Amino acid sequence: MTALTGATLADVGVDAVALKPTEVDVRRARRLSVETLTIDYEGREHVPEPGTLADLAAGRDVRLTVPVRADGFDPHGEDGLLRSVPDPVGLVAVAGNPAYLDARECRRAIAPRLRAVAGLAEDPWVGTESVERVALAVGGTQYDLLSGTTEAEIDALRSAGFDGDVAVYAPLVLTDDEDAILDALGPYAGRRPDVRQRLPPGTPTDSSTTGSAREALLDGLEQYALAGNVEAISGQVDRLHGAGVDHVVAYPARGLGPFLD
């Protein structure tokens, strides 16, 4: 298995790290060897305190994900959490994962709220998941999930005249152990529609899977994740940069520990 040190994030060339507050103490990210941090939204009860955000933003670029339909972040409604974000902290305006929204929030109009939140930020990132055309119309850095079509989509954007920044989010597992990769990321790959249709119903998506299902999951992870040894991942990141990605944002799927200086 590949040895991990605090230098590995720099070695693989990622530009930013995505933090999930339900999984890690975001304050530990001060020891990471990257200049940009993004903080995912996993429910309002898990949003870091303003003081914690301000501390993280001292000396580096920190961006908080803002689900524009959620109470607390709704620019056309209850916006107390949005107003509490410290000035040094940037915004990532997203429609919001329905898993973290109630039925009432899901019914709220996305486009005007994305525009309003993006308008509050000097350099907004705008999540494109499921709202690609709206996000492009809003402008700002276009923030998308890594997929097998990422490079073609960026080429189409550039050909259409888009000259803004592009950021791409991908889960990261730095190891050459296939079982470890599947245990960490197999379920993520298995939720992608093109991978799911290749899996028989009830197929496990962790390291216990075998045969063609295992191959389907590993093939999917080549499209949707950064997984493998340093050489393999740095090659993926280099290709993404070469295709026009400005910010490769990695979510460490096995925690921050191995990457801390």
Low-confidence stretches: 1-7
Question: CATH H level of the largest domain: which superfamily?
Answer: Aldolase class I
| Total of DSSP H or I helical runs spanning 4+ residues | 11
Judging from the principal axes of the Cα atoms, what is the shape? globular
Please compute the radius of gyration using only Cα atoms.
Answer: 18 Å
CATH fold-level assignment of the largest domain: TIM Barrel
**Largest sheet, strands/sense/barrel:** 8 strands, parallel, barrel
First-residue to last-residue Cα separation: 20 Å
Round the mean pLDDT to the nearest integer and report it.
93
- Spatial order of the strands in the main sheet? 1-2-3-4-5-6-7-9
Strand and helix order: HEEHEHEHHEHEHEHHHEHE
How many domains would you count in the coordinates? 2
Can you walk me through this structure?
The chain has 2 domains: 193 residues, TIM Barrel, CATH 3.20.20.70; 52 residues. It is 35% helix and 18% strand. It contains 11 helices and 9 strands. An 8-stranded parallel barrel has the order 1-2-3-4-5-6-7-9, surrounded by 4 helices. α7 links the parallel β6 and β7. It is globular. The N terminus is likely disordered.
Keywords:
alpha/beta; 261 residues; 2 domains; 35% helix; 18% strand; single chain
SSE layout and pairings?
Blueprint: H1 8-12, E1 16-19, E2 36-39, H2 50-56, E3 61-67, H3 80-83, E4 90-94, H4 103-106, H5 111-120, E5 125-127, H6 132-138, E6 141-145, H7 150-159, E7 166-174, H8 178-190, H9 193-196, H10 211-224, E8 226-228, H11 230-243, E9 247-252
Parallel strand pairs: 1-2, 1-9, 2-3, 3-4, 4-5, 5-6, 6-7, 7-8, 7-9
